[in-house]
């Protein structure tokens, strides 16, 4: 993909931004920081970063959440919320921003979580249920998230949620190992 794009004269558009960002995310979730950073730099190379950076804002917030790197959580949450709320990435960005705010114990995290809408997006609904489970130590919300992740076949997110439930961590670790992903820093 990358070589073909370069041979074509490097025309940048929205159609390439998300796939390149997804590669950065996948490598990061698998613990390959060098490859993740390479694809991240490629994804943020377009002439119009403001227009094409939405997926990378999601990626950066999701990786910070996964790695437990909360030093820049406030900035990452704000970056995830910049841009059109009607874009295709908006429910994902807003949900992961809310969960990152909760996990990082940012001021106003509960209010942010309560104000975040799923936009009828099941991935976002599961992410917000998991965030509520984290914030309120509510296993029922975590089970709600698990059911949605299972229904939409989001195995990675399902596994990460299992790690938050008492007695289910081994299941989550096993599923992450099958996916060649490193466990999150909870």
- Provide the succession of SSEs: HHHHHHHHHHHH
First-residue to last-residue Cα separation: 34 Å
Number of domains: 2
Oligomer: single chain
Instruction: Compute the average pLDDT.
Output: 89
Identify low-pLDDT runs. Answer: none
SS elements, strand count: 0
Question: What would you call the shape?
Answer: globular
Sheet/helix structural class? mainly alpha
The rounded Rg comes to 16 Å
What is the number of helical segments per DSSP (H or I, 4+ residues)? 12
> Approximately what portion of the residues adopt beta-strand conformation?
under 5%
Percent helix range: 55-70%
Summary tags:
186 residues; 0% strand; 12 helices
Structure, explained:
The protein is mostly helical and 186 residues long. The chain folds into 2 domains: 1-84, no CATH class; 118-186. The chain has helices at residues 2-7, 14-29, 33-43, 49-52, 54-67, 73-80, 90-103, 109-115, 122-136, 139-151, 155-162, 169-178. Helix 2 (14-29) runs antiparallel to helix 3, helix 5 runs parallel beside helix 7 and helix 11 (155-162) runs antiparallel to helix 12 (169-178). The protein is globular, with a radius of gyration of 16 Å. The model has no long low-confidence stretch (mean pLDDT 89).
Set down the secondary structure blueprint.
Layout: H1 2-7, H2 14-29, H3 33-43, H4 49-52, H5 54-67, H6 73-80, H7 90-103, H8 109-115, H9 122-136, H10 139-151, H11 155-162, H12 169-178
